[in-house]
Amino acid sequence: MVDANGYRIVAFGQWAGVAGMINILHGLGLRFLALGHHTPFMHIGMAHNYRNVSQAIQAVRDCGYEISMGLMPRSIGPVTFCFTGTGNVSKGAQDIINELPVEYVEPHDLKDVSETGDMNKVYATVLSRHHHLVRKSDGIYDPMEYENHPELYTSHFRTSVSYFFPLTPINSATHSCRILLQPCSAQPLSSSCQSLRELIFQSVAVKNITLPDFVGK
Ligand SMILES: *[C@@H]1O[C@H](CO)[C@@H](O)[C@H](O)[C@H]1NC(C)=O
Ligand SMILES: *[C@@H]1O[C@H](CO)[C@@H](O)[C@H](O)[C@H]1NC(C)=O
Ligand SMILES: CC(=O)N[C@H]1CO[C@H](CO)[C@@H](O)[C@@H]1O
């Protein structure tokens, strides 16, 4: 929603990220349980069950303590999180994950850590526009121009950052908690944003498809 001058007047903020992250950690616990794994994420309830944020954070810390004690099932492999975007929502979500034993890595390191990383922690990466947006004509990213003319840009997320996405059954589970936090701008959906959304949607389908393989591991 924008005002007469095109300025955005409504936005999700930090608390959307905090509540969303708590809920998705809870969901991750249920997801792993459905796959036959009891994980420390089962400590975390839905955000609305907590009286205040410190109570919720305590539950996240309990989970983090068990992860650091090596209680994540080895068959799952290190869990990786990807925050798409660097705004207030992403920051709120990061505030919550920072209560877990987390190591931030560059997007191109995510594949490595998801395969050979430390089981006593989780890994996160913050994906920003410059990681995947390029001008269609010459492949360069100009942040100012992108703001005004997103239609001139495309995203190479699908190809260059594709290692986030489930290529193997194991990865499909470790990536099941990927988060799409960055809202598309108030302008009509740019093609890059659209393709990102499609990809997230697709990855959920891929995860489902590879699920029986994963259970067999
Ligand atoms: C949060 O809620 C818990 C449980 O009711 C309470 O003990 C604690 O004092 C509250 N913390 C804050 C900062 O309000
Ligand atoms: C993000 O949060 C800061 C600090 O609360 C606030 O000043 C800013 O307006 C917020 N940005 C948006 C886009 O809401
Ligand atoms: C839409 C779809 O592919 N659903 C599948 C998800 O995974 C379960 C378990 O393997 C299948 O039974 C569904 O058909």
Please tell me about this protein's structure.
By secondary structure, this protein is mainly alpha-helical. The chain has 9 helices and 5 strands. It has helices at residues 14-34, 53-68, 88-97, 110-116, 129-132, 143-148, 157-160, 169-174, 191-216, and strands spanning 80-84, 102-104, 122-127, 133-135, 153-155. Helix 1 (14-34) packs across helix 3 (88-97). The longest helix is centred in the last third of the chain and has 26 residues, at 191-216. The model is unreliable at 165-217 (pLDDT under 50). The structure holds 2-acetamido-2-deoxy-beta-D-glucopyranose (NAG) (3 copies). The site of one 2-acetamido-2-deoxy-beta-D-glucopyranose has 4 residues, from helix 9.
Structural class: mainly alpha
Mean pLDDT: 74
Bound ions, cofactors and other small molecules, one mention each: 2-acetamido-2-deoxy-beta-D-glucopyranose
Q: Approximately how much beta-strand content do the residues carry?
A: 5-15%
Shape: globular
**In angstroms, what is the radius of gyration?**
18 Å
- H/E element order: HHEHEHEHEHEHHH
Keywords: Membrane, Oxidoreductase, Transmembrane, Transmembrane helix
Transmembrane segments: 12-34
InterPro entries: AASS
